[in-house]
Design brief:
This protein is of the alpha/beta class. The chain is about 40% helix and about 15% strand. Bound molecules: NADPH dihydro-nicotinamide-adenine-dinucleotide phosphate (NDP) and 2-hydroxyethylsulfonic acid.
Length: about 250
């Protein structure tokens, strides 16, 4: 029987690559996000593998009701979720603390922290029922060391790190694994979103070195998900060769 993965933020970047990787490995996929056109296109592409089932759920992780309704309404055949990847997230702006926008702060805290809490809270009962499951939270190097003008984005990823540690302890009695994966810079839509559509500013982030790709992260998530039952990667930081930590990248 196929295993099932639920991925938040599957419409681009890491989430999309994770869906493609797991679908190629014959996992049933629940793909989620806000952009319907992107979800539909991905669902159609994944469904070319006739060995798997694909379900797309459109919801905004910031909206508690939408999250709980989507998960609670899952049909029986979709309630057996083996892996949840809490990936949906964003950086909004990169400004000194005193100049940053409060709306940007709200967007990051609401999505990266509260969204992750809501989705986890909705899915955990399904895993508890079978006393098995794996939650993979996408943190960041920004959750390991704060960098200049990273303020609230970094804070939101420090929170992901803390929540992952807490989940791991509290969910142990239910045999639910919790892994926090902390990527460094990877070229996705991330910087385009951060710089609000400014493509040249976004591109400049990845100039002078070879950044990670979304596929690198998908392969890492797949590795963590397919270890023996008694093995759990608790915390994993992954950067490209040129990046030493959150604030030092060697650029040619
Ligand atoms: P992308 O911008 O390419 O993808 C972000 C995904 O999150 C999209 O699918 C988007 O879907 C979804 N999303 C954003 N807001 C919401 C929301 N409110 N409700 C539901 N879905 C939402 O970025 P990445 O793939 O790079 O980022 C994925 C995760 O990885 C994020 O948590 C990010 O912080 C983290 N990360 C990224 C790094 C990088 O350098 N790229 C490095 C370290 C961590 P839609 O817009 O359709 O809702
Ligand atoms: C995304 C990577 O370096 O922009 O979390 O914070 S970075």
């Amino acid at each position: 029987m196929n295993k099932t993965i639920l991925i938040t933020g599957a419409t681009s970047g890491f989430g999309k690559a994770i869906a493609e990787k797991f679908a190629a490995e014959n996992w049933n996929c629940i793909i989620t996000g806000r952009r319907k056109d992107k979800l539909d296109a991905l669902a159609e592409a994944l469904s070319s593998n006739k060995n798997i089932q694909v379900l797309s759920l459109r919801f905004d992780v910031r909206k508690k009701e939408e999250v709980f309704t989507a998960v609670n309404d899952l049909q029986n055949e979709w309630r057996n979720i083996d892996v949840l990847v809490n990936n949906a997230g964003l950086a909004a702006g990169r400004d000194p603390f005193d100049e940053a926008s409060v709306d940007d702060w709200d967007a990051m805290i609401d999505t990266n922290v509260k969204g992750l809490l809501y989705v986890s809270k909705a899915v955990i009962p399904l895993m508890k029922e079978k006393q098995k499951g794996h939650i993979i939270n996408i943190g960041s190097t920004a959750g390991k060391e704060v960098y200049k003008e990273g303020n609230v984005y970094c804070a939101s990823k420090f929170a992901v790190n803390a929540v992952s540690q807490a989940q791991r302890m509290d969910l142990l009695p239910h045999k639910i694994k919790v892994t926090c994966i902390n990527p460094g810079a990877a070229e996705t839509e991330f910087s385009l979103v951060r710089f609000k559509g400014d493509a040249s500013k976004a591109k400049a982030v990845y100039e002078g070195y070879e950044a990670l790709t979304a596929e690198d992260i998908a392969n890492t998530v797949y590795y963590c998900s397919t270890l023996p039952d008694h093995v759990c990667i608790n915390d994993l930081t992954i950067t490209c060769l040129a990046q030493a930590n959150s604030f030092y990248t060697y650029k040619e």
